[in-house]
Amino acid sequence: MAEETIFSKIIRKEIPADIVYQDDLVTAFRDINPRAPSHMLIIPNKLIPTVNDIEAEDEATMGRMFTVARKLAEEEGIAENGYRLIMNCNNHGGQEVYHIHMHLLGGRPLGPMTVG
Ligand code: AMP
User: Fold this and answer.
1) Which residue stretches of the chain have pLDDT < 50?
2) What domain range is 77 assigned to?
3) Centre of ligand 1 from the C-alpha of residue 96, in Å
4) Is 45 a member of any domain?
5) Ligand 1 contacts CB of residue 3 (under 6 A)
6) What sequence ranges are listed for the domain HIT (predicted)?
7) What's the CATH number where 61 sits?
8) Is the CB–ligand 1 distance for residue 89 below 6 Å?
9) 0.90 exceeded by pTM
10) Is 101 among the residues known to form the active site?
């Protein structure tokens, strides 16, 4: 059984977060340490520690993460100019919180993708 992270508490609203979207499958909130004018995290309500732990039964949830990212980008007014979606996996990927999350970043030109 995977250990819960702070993100489970955010989903259950046990600690404060700037939640911008929530439904039966996913929750989205603003990153506490934004790296761009718009920086949100889209996470599954189910605790999946890393991308390596995604199962076939999670496919609907993974799809929802993308449709919510698209919707939030539109609402944020960054869809047309563009944005970046990032998921980090494990140590070499720079993952810090072991509850998978999609970073949605935009609001300025992000430049070429850098890798560390
Ligand atoms: P990663 O390095 O991909 O695991 O990213 C974890 C992200 O979670 C970082 O961008 C953090 O700033 C963000 N984060 C950590 N704790 C919180 C929190 N309580 N509320 C919002 N974002 C958080």
Assistant:
1) none
2) 6-106
3) 7
4) yes
5) no
6) 6-115
7) 3.30.428.10
8) no
9) yes
10) yes
